[in-house]
Amino acid sequence: MLKAAGVVTFAIGSRMANSAEMQVISSDPNYAYSVPDFVNLSRIQQSLMKLHLFLLTEQSDEKGRDIVFLLDGSDNTRNGFSAIQDFLYKVIERLDIGPNKDRTAVIQFSNEALANFFLSSFMRKEDVLTAVRRLSHKGGRPVKMGAALKYVKEKVFTAASGSRNTANVPQILVVLNSGASSDSVDLPVASLKESGVRILTIGTKNSDHKEMEKMSHAPSYTLSVAEMAELPSIQEQVVAAITEDKLKSEISETEVIAERKPPGKDVVFLLDGSDGTRRGFQAMRDFVQKAVEKLSVDDNKDRVSVVQYSRDPAVQFYLNTYTTKGDILDTVRGLRHKGGSPLKTGEALQYLRDNVFTASAGSRRLEGVPQVLILLSGGRSYDSVDAPATALKQMGVLMFAVGTRGSDLGELQKISHDSRNAITVPEFTDLVLNCLSCCLFSVDTGKKDVVFLLDGSDGTRNGFPAMRDFVERVVGKLNVGPNDDRVSVVQYSRDPEVNFYLNTYTTKEDIVDSVRGLNHRGGIPLNTGAALRYVRDNVFTNSSGSRRLQGVPQMLILLNGGKSSDNVDTPASALRQQGIFVIGIGTRNSDRSELQKISHEPRYALSVPEFTDLPGVQEQLSTVLSTVRVRGTPMTPTVTGKKDVVFLLDGSDGTRRGFQAMRDFVQKAVEKLSVDDNKDRVSVVQYSRDPAVQFYLNTYTTKGDILDTVRGLRHKGGSPLKTGEALQYLRDNVFTASAGSRRLEGVPQVLILLSGGRSYDSVDAPATALKQMGVLMFAVGTRGSDLGELQKISHDSRNAITVPEFTDLAGVQEQLQSSVEAVDVVFLLDGSDGTRNGFPAMRDFVERVVGKLNVGPNDDRVSVVQYSRDPEVNFYLNTYTTKEDIVDSVRGLNHRGGIPLNTGAALRYVRDNVFTNSSGSRRLQGVPQMLILLNGGKSSDNVDTPASALRQQGIFVIGIGTRNSDRSELQKISHEPRYALSVPEFTDLPGVQEQLSTVLSTVKAVPPSRKPPGKDVVFLLDGSDGTRRGFQAMRDFVQKAVEKLSVDDNKDRVSVVQYSRDPAVQFYLNTYTTKGDILDTVRGLRHKGGSPLKTGEALQYLRDNVFTASAGSRRLEGVPQVLILLSGGRSYDSVDAPATALKQMGVLMFAVGTRGSDLGELQKISHDSRNAITVPEFTDLAGVQEQLQSSVEAVVVDVTPETPTETGMLTSAPPCWLERLPDLFHPVVGKLNVGPNDDRVSVVQYSRDPEVNFYLNTYTTKEDIVDSVRGLNHRGGIPLNTGAALRYVRDNVFTNSSGSRRLQGVPQMLILLNGGKSSDNVDTPASALRQQGIFVIGIGTRNSDRSELQKISHEPRYALSVPEFTDLPGVQEQLSTVLSTVRVRGTPMTPTVTGKKVTDFYTPMSL
């Protein structure tokens, strides 16, 4: 019966259940689960939830669609209505109508909407088609599409009308329209889209196509015909759009399960484990145990971590280590006192901030879960607690400090988030549960901003005294103060009125007095929507006392006594998006569905029969008030080279005459952007009384489409001018991910405002909000504008520009364009004896370049450095902030003189001393860094390493030399060889001025990030019983190795781990930042002891806990990871899998053993068998110290000019060309450093299908490869399937088994030699190669399709061409340059490995 009714049944039984019976009951035998006992139900919870999600999304496919047709029934369509009817009939005929399949509704509209039938009206196709045949034209005017869309949202896409939206059935609206709407469609369209309705629009030549695009789900969902009679021509398109699978697949898991703010809290116990707490440690342990017993761990509400500290901290377990209360309690009971001194509480707090209150350690802070720290400390800290305590508070951690008589109460109060939460007891044995409850259950002492919105309409007159009493009682429970809770009260009926703001009163008494004096306002109708919008824009603002932007939770408590006369959907959604937590309390006269929409979640919509019954929900409200925590907005990094640009245009009545000039301005600005390669995105919004989006950031992807739309923009009109509302609209609707903004990816956000008058509303709060989001704002006004207002809006007051009229915009176009991009420019001038005569010309050149820059602290910055034997800074990047000061300083420069010319030392100097934060460089903020070198001779020292280091740091170098310079040296130094410019003498510098200006204006992006210097070194020491005698020697070995590292400048990091039966971290990679601290700790290491020796488990532990970002590893930043194992015996467990896992992570492993070790095991562990070393005893380690040090340096160098590549050649050349292949191939391979651990090469031929001549791991010497190439025979065959061949090399050659080292981060290159157009499509396989990080160079002949080659190549410029294959030597040099300079970024999960390449040559075989 249940199965026949479509009920999906799951059966769960215990060991006593009959499994066959359970399978019969279940809808599917796989849905029958078994557990030993019901207490073990948690074991299958995850599996059951996944299956539940799968079924939900699967069933959404089975339930069809809800399709609503909204037809223009106005007078405009009278003649065409029969065509609409026929069209509708034919489309519905193609649908699969049924109660659990497709459902349809038809609505007509003109001046109002009329339902012909609802989604629930007919469940058989015959009935629907009969109803369509009987449709009669509605008639009427004007056309109010906005009102019709609102009607559809509120009356048709509802459960009562047959919508299955809550069951995740796709909701589709098809709009047929024949003219522009007389009312605005913006809000109802936004509301429909928010509800998940996909809109398809069909218009005629009289329709407003911009309006239709705005309504449509996507541009491809906007269709058009000249007349309604032509509807049959788009019938197939409409049916395809309605029935296409993507509509179903767009119902994602995020729509199936609404995101909820997780309950509970993350609790970290920080225990003083120093020598002074040895006697009290048992009591501390008991305290933690009792606290954990009161938490809700098993349902994943609460998480727990315990950290002990003395001199340094030691994590006992992280927040995500255990998921059951039993496991936590077992571990707590087994805690042993750490010991040690002195007591460094400050360092421990900092450690918690960096390593425990992090997502990787299980913290859910970014999900809004309260973070609680309970400190038990028995003494005064040896170091300062101020900065780390403040840092934790700024992260929102609620801190409670418990001390004894030996503690410093002042210090405990500094640490606590509130001084009242610092508690002292005589001894830890006096810790009692009231301390515990104070810590755990007063989490609600975190400050809040609470706004009461009271229904003051005529309908609540009798209940108003009860509302007033309720507010008073709630306020009585709050902790009111300027730095604690703040309260505001607003009344509303037809419109809202503030009784007092969040910053009006700072004491509970004043608030209560004011509440007692409140008078009922009265009035009708009840506009709840307008009131919600008002509190959002005027009360939850900085100027009104809201601390939302500081991360303080924002709460709105609505007391409502009736249904709203206006729509609440959009303003309620806006409050939710802004992170405001809304609780709605209504009476029997309220609309419960409306209250649920308004509330943060439906369960926060509370109800009472009358307002006099409000005390009944008092407790419920107090619970919510005490537990809610609202998520803040995390800061995002800045990504350079791209930007999202929004133009906000004043379209009010006052700008009608100037609108053409505004349009031209936008057009010229867009022409200078890089849209087609997806670097830049553009949006245009017009506004007057309200804003209207012309197109979003993700509407168009080509410059042509944007320019076409801009040229067709029409003036909006309207008054008054509400710039504040428009800015707020941009913040909420345009600078969002759904509208195409890449802000969260770190892409710069730019707003350019063109405004012709003073705003009718305040711009302060929305402008501040945009700035805090990181939007760079530029405001351009006319004589009618308010300059002060423009300056408030702009991110810097100097970016507020005025012109007499908009027709004068051309005069500021260049100024504004340059303002959008900032750059840090350093001039490095050769001041040696050889440039004495040319120095005045160099000085003039610098002055002219600076003259073109837009100098300012937030714009361009300039530094000048001279050098000869050694460098000297004339001024730094932050020395001067005006162009005049820089020019004055440049004019006063004196030639320095001196020999020899050490360009290498000068490059190193500017990198380490000028391109730094302290010297004014903004590299870490993503501002492009440029170095302009003026050089007059060959360097006496080597430039390779410092030039490479600059490149790795993302500094763009332009080298300008004279006839005396070494051109090859300049090309090495420059970002690319083409950026090495040359003049006969320095007096000829004006000749490259224009060239340099072009580079300055076009270079937007910092070059791809390179491997930072240094390494992360982990020593894994065998601390088992068998190494007790040799441990001193191991310690000495580590000490000597550390002495040779560069720790103090943060190049190298060190960690030490001891292991026997299990591993014990002595310190992590981020525990110490100075060599002195590391050496002190190493000297104090004590032998661990224990058996058996589990090296496999220790290696796995390192992978999971030490080579991680949270433990200080910089693997994901490309820093080499080194493991040095000292082991004195054979492992009790297998090392194979963990060693392989570490190698796949890119860890370079060296294993040193003694006579008791297993050499084969050591070789398995080492990344290269030659790096497995043995000594008779550990006391003989000194003899291999130097050897090991050299081995480490050989594979890990701070800067490597050559990066490894794996290259493949794919060719389709005719037989005659194969004779020439060695001529091309030999020089190319000759440039490679072939070897199993260096460069690798493969060759593949293809025509109809591909054939591998040899794989990447077939040959390991250059000679073998060249011999094999000489012996290649032409394969022949037709047609030429380049697409299939590309797919083949991706799946069969660039793989681990074929010798590819892509997963180890080795760059992958494919060189394609192609002689004709492909018979199959190359787009998808080319894209797949690109996504996999394979760098493709395409070389073709005159018979090749150039466009196809450009698609295949990494970038169009890497598609090379020759007339015939016999002319290939002509591209030899070009190819060599690419091979030597190109560096491909690996997968984000893998590090970069230096010193190797893999080259795959792919040659076509067609005739």
> Portion of residues in helices?
25-40%
State the helix count: 47
What about the largest sheet? Answer: 7 strands, mixed
State the end-to-end distance: 67 Å
In the predicted model, the low-confidence regions spanning at least 5 consecutive residues are: 56-61, 245-262, 433-445, 629-640, 1004-1012, 1197-1204, 1381-1398, 1402-1407
- Helix vs. strand class: alpha/beta
- Tell me the number of strands: 45
Instruction: Kindly report the average pLDDT value.
Output: 83
Radius of gyration: 36 Å
Structural write-up:
The protein has 1407 residues and is of the alpha/beta class. Helix 17 runs antiparallel to helix 18 and helix 31 packs parallel to helix 32. The strands form eight sheets. Strands 39, 40, 41, 42, 43, 44 and 45 form a seven-stranded mixed sheet that branches.
Which secondary structure elements does this structure contain, and how are they paired or packed?
Elements: E1 11-13, H1 19-25, E2 32-34, H2 42-62, E3 66-72, H3 81-93, E4 103-109, E5 113-117, H4 125-133, H5 145-156, E6 171-177, H6 186-194, E7 197-203, H7 209-215, E8 222-224, H8 235-243, H9 245-249, H10 253-256, E9 266-272, H11 281-293, E10 303-309, E11 313-317, H12 325-333, H13 345-356, E12 371-377, H14 386-394, E13 397-403, H15 409-415, E14 422-424, H16 433-440, E15 449-455, H17 464-477, E16 486-492, E17 496-500, H18 508-516, H19 528-538, E18 554-560, H20 569-577, E19 580-586, H21 592-598, E20 605-607, H22 615-627, E21 643-650, H23 659-671, E22 680-687, E23 691-695, H24 703-711, H25 723-734, E24 749-755, H26 764-772, E25 775-781, H27 787-793, E26 800-802, H28 810-820, E27 824-830, H29 839-852, E28 861-867, E29 871-875, H30 883-891, H31 903-913, E30 929-935, H32 944-952, E31 955-961, H33 967-973, E32 980-982, H34 990-1002, E33 1016-1022, H35 1031-1043, E34 1053-1059, E35 1063-1067, H36 1075-1083, H37 1095-1106, E36 1121-1127, H38 1136-1144, E37 1147-1153, H39 1159-1165, E38 1172-1174, H40 1182-1195, E39 1205-1211, H41 1215-1218, ...
Parallel strand pairs: 1-2, 3-4, 3-6, 6-7, 7-8, 9-10, 9-12, 12-13, 13-14, 15-16, 15-18, 18-19, 19-20, 21-22, 21-24, 24-25, 25-26, 27-28, 27-30, 30-31, 31-32, 33-34, 33-36, 36-37, 37-38, 39-42, 39-45, 40-45, 42-43, 42-45, 43-44
Antiparallel strand pairs: 4-5, 10-11, 16-17, 22-23, 28-29, 34-35, 40-41
Helix pairs in contact: 3-4, 5-6, 11-12, 13-14, 17-18, 17-22, 19-20, 23-24, 25-26, 29-30, 29-34, 31-32, 35-36, 37-38, 42-43, 44-45
